[in-house]
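Title: Comparing notes on inverse folding

I've been comparing how different people in this forum approach sequence design from structure. To keep things fair, I'm posting one structure and asking everyone to reply with a full sequence. Here's the target:
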């Protein structure tokens, strides 16, 4: 009996040694193959924390929520109200999966209005992922042909739309639509394919009860001169805070209480430009930046706006 026990022990030892060797080989193999695979993990935004805003009671069903997702040097804005949603842009190509995850974390599976403001990668890059992952009610972009920049990114968007039988529609200036109880007006779009693709940007002014919001895409001063605009509470600053947008005259017409700048940390363009920050400061505008604050969430009951970010609890209501 003793002998048998001993040989059993020896066998066990042998098996575990083999197992260890196999495990070690597997680890080495995994490590070696990983070197060749382009890892999407490089994006260092904090997606899992989306449901963990400092104030847990921040989401209220009868309020409007506007998420300015942190997608680095790119735009992606989600509006949610009364069971409907609108996504304006979806970040760069590499942000697509992230934006999908952001939205899925919010238990949203249908997007009522999907808008690609203009055909640049930092706005439409992630749209194909969005189209592939959600039911899309309506999809809008400015009229785009080879005359505008046709890129692999744009073709990917068109392909995914085709595969889903999703029509790419165009807006006209002055068109109105509703996202839940929020009323949206297309204040600008250029379907004639101007030289500067930024100036094709679909710009939307949205009102929710007493509050108003203006989403400028990457529209420049040329566009600002053409827009007949009223005072607006919240401004998504045009073109990541570039000085080719946000003229003093335009900002004075809007007089925003809150300005949100979607911008990447240490971006090569030097956005946002200090002159734009100075202009906004001189109007006593509160500035919120995704490079400093990560994803920014504005919630409103229609009377006042509450700001939350993933990094900091910025309490205090801003009318
Ligand atoms: Zn842009």
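Reply #1:
Here's my take.
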């Amino acid at each position: 009996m003793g002998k048998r026990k001993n040989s059993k022990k020896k066998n066990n030892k042998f098996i575990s040694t083999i197992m260890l060797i196999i495990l070690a080989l597997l680890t080495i193999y995994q490590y070696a193959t990983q070197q060749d695979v382009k890892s999407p993990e490089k994006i260092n935004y904090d997606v899992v924390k989306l449901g963990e805003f400092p104030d847990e009671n921040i989401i209220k069903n009868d309020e409007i929520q506007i998420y300015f997702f942190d997608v680095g040097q790119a735009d992606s804005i989600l509006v949610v109200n009364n069971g409907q949603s609108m996504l304006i842009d979806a970040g760069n190509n590499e942000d697509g999966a992230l934006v999908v995850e952001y939205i899925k974390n919010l238990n949203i599976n249908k997007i009522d209005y999907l808008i690609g403001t203009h055909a640049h990668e930092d706005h439409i890059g992630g749209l194909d992922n969005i189209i592939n992952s959600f039911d899309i009610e309506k999809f809008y972009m400015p009229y785009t042909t080879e005359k505008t920049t046709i890129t692999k990114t744009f073709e990917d968007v068109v392909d995914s739309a085709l595969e889903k039988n999703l029509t790419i529609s165009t807006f006209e200036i002055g068109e109105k639509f509703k996202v839940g109880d929020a009323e949206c007006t297309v204040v600008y779009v250029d379907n004639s394919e101007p030289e500067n693709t930024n100036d094709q940007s679909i710009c939307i002014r949205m009102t929710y009860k007493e509050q108003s919001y203006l989403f400028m895409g990457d529209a420049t001063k040329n566009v600002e001169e053409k827009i007949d605009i009223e005072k607006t509470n919240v401004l998504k600053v045009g073109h990541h805070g570039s000085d080719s947008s946000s003229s003093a005259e335009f900002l004075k017409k809007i007089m925003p209480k809150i300005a949100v700048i979607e911008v990447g940390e240490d971006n090569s363009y030097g956005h946002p430009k200090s002159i734009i920050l100075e202009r906004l400061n001189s109007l006593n505008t509160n500035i919120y930046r995704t490079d400093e604050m990560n994803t920014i969430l504005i919630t409103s009951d229609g009377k006042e706006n509450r700001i939350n970010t993933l990094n900091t609890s910025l309490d205090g209501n801003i009318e």
